[in-house]
Design brief:
With 467 residues, the chain is α/β, with parallel strands linked by helices. Strands 3-2-1-7-20 form a 5-stranded parallel β-sheet, with helices on one face. It has a 5-stranded parallel β-sheet with strand order 9-16-10-11-12. Helix 1 runs parallel beside helix 10 and helix 13 packs across helix 15. The two termini are 30 Å apart.
């Protein structure tokens, strides 16, 4: 049996995709790199428009050196890869990717022989009353505004939720001169103390986190631990945040809120590719399976970076390089096996640190029990927690796609990317099941919204080819 010709395509140009492209190019290949952004770098190292003059130190702070190195890597590949920016992969079938080019609003197909999926992550959202008010952003959205355009989401901002990103974004905003009114962390201080031994496995990363917290305290930012978000209040725009702490409700005036509960993997493309999924307790999510070298369950498809499990930017770089080395080795090309083994060992070592982060910033498992019936869970279809619970009570639904069919939760523009986590938690609580038992939304094309006329045009062109 002959192997398929080497025709590698990489989806995503964050740390994982860039290092994968660099590795393939170093071995004489010219991969296609497809990325939604106008400039490569991913979310963590998102680049401003070319004419902006802010320095890397201003943009990335302590991560400036790493961001500069990643950007230099992709810039140095300009003549050795086929980089396709502003391009969204929205579907896949028959070894062809359907890709929307944003600036021209045209769609085309890109064939592939081998595929490295490096789709990254987005915010993990647990709704709270008032979260649809203008002025309320996810933590990642707040950070993108600051990095990409130098814009703050407000002049007096509250950051809430939990996870390392909570403190990083608060630090970046305060450093930029924004009035950060408070940081509200649902994790208890005792949780963070208990996680110290595990997090000391990565002392440099741990030290950065300690520095952010210390800097915020030193500059007068109020830090609250062990809270429960109750609601965001306002009329035409958010004007205050209410939270419970120590058995009492407290409130704080603000004109913007950034909130989130760490990150969730962008797995839709892996799902459309037919990759096998399994529940990962540490991530509290169903994720595509991959072996230690980055192979998925689908031959010729490799997974790298946060799109297959949240491990951070350093791990994404290592996983991207490893996936590319694995692809090359699978097709008979000579690779540095010692380097590949070393990358595997680095990734395995990081797992203990990642478990420490989950201990320090645990998922608020009581969120669903506390969510009021009137809370909007799916903002696309305006589906409330009460509607989900009633559907369970009336029909006995105990699986996510059954609940979707009955209530339209997850049928909107985001295809469940924003509401899926919350809907699963509500369903698990309503049925008394562990969250891993209720399943996940099946992936549907388009992965993200595209103009409907482009779908018709692509279908027509396929019919012409078939004829």
């Amino acid at each position: 049996m002959t192997r398929p010709a080497l025709q590698p395509v990489i989806v995503g140009a964050g740390p994982a995709g860039i290092r994968a492209a660099q590795t393939l190019a170093a071995h004489g290949l010219r991969p296609i790199v497809i990325d939604e952004a106008a400039r490569a770098g991913g979310q963590i190292y998102r680049r401003s428009p070319a004419h902006f003059k802010r320095t890397p130190q201003t943009l990335y702070g302590t991560e400036a050196a790493r961001a500069t190195a990643v950007h230099a890597a992709i810039d140095g590949l300009r003549d050795r890869i086929d980089h396709r920016p502003d391009s969204l992969v929205w579907n896949v079938q028959d070894h062809q990717l359907d890709v929307l080019h944003g600036p021209t609003q045209t769609t085309r197909t890109v064939p592939y022989g081998q595929l490295i999926v490096a789709t990254g992550a987005t915010d993990r959202v647990l709704p709270v009353s008032g979260w649809t008010l203008p002025g309320v952003y996810t933590l990642g959205g707040a950070q993108v505004a600051l990095k990409f355009q130098g814009c703050a989401i407000g002049s007096r901002v509250v950051f809430a939720g939990t996870g390392p990103l909570l403190y990083l974004v608060a630090y970046q905003y305060a450093k930029a001169g924004v009035d950060v009114a408070a940081v509200l962390d649902t994790a208890r201080f005792a949780d963070q103390l208990a996680a110290v031994p595990a997090m000391l496995r990565q002392p440099a990363v741990f030290a950065k986190g300690v520095y952010y917290v210390a800097w915020l305290r030193a500059h007068g930012v109020a830090l609250h631990n062990g809270v429960r978000l109750v609601r965001m209040q306002g009329d035409q725009r958010v004007r205050s945040v209410v939270w419970a702490e120590g058995g009492h409700e407290r409130s704080l005036d603000c004109d913007a809120v950034g909130f989130g509960y760490a990150l969730r993997s962008e797995t839709q493309l892996a799902d459309l590719l037919g990759c096998r999924f399994a529940f990962a307790p540490m991530h509290r999510a169903h994720l595509p399976e991959r072996d230690a070298a980055g192979r998925s369950s689908v031959p010729g498809v490799y997974l790298a970076g946060d799109g297959a499990g949240i491990m951070g930017a350093d791990a994404a770089e290592w996983a991207g390089e490893l996936a590319a080395l694995t692809l090359l080795a699978d097709h008979g090309l000579a690779v540095d096996t010692q380097r590949a083994n070393g990358l595997q060992q680095k990734l395995e070592k990081l797992t203990g640190f990642r478990a420490g982060l989950e201990r320090a910033f645990p998922f608020p498992e009581d969120w669903a029990a506390q969510a009021p019936d009137e809370l909007v869970v799916c903002r696309c279809e305006n589906v409330t927690a009460g509607e989900l619970r009633r559907a369970v009570a009336d029909s006995g639904a105990d699986e996510m796609n059954r609940l979707k069919a009955l209530t339209r939760v997850g049928m909107g523009r985001c295809q469940g990317r924003m509401c899926g986590v919350a809907a699963a938690e509500i369903l698990a609580q309503a049925t008394g099941q562990p969250v891993q038992q209720v399943g996940r939304f099946r992936g549907q094309a388009p992965i993200k919204p595209i103009p409907i006329h482009l779908v018709h045009a692509l279908d027509a062109s396929r019919e012409e080819v078939a004829a």
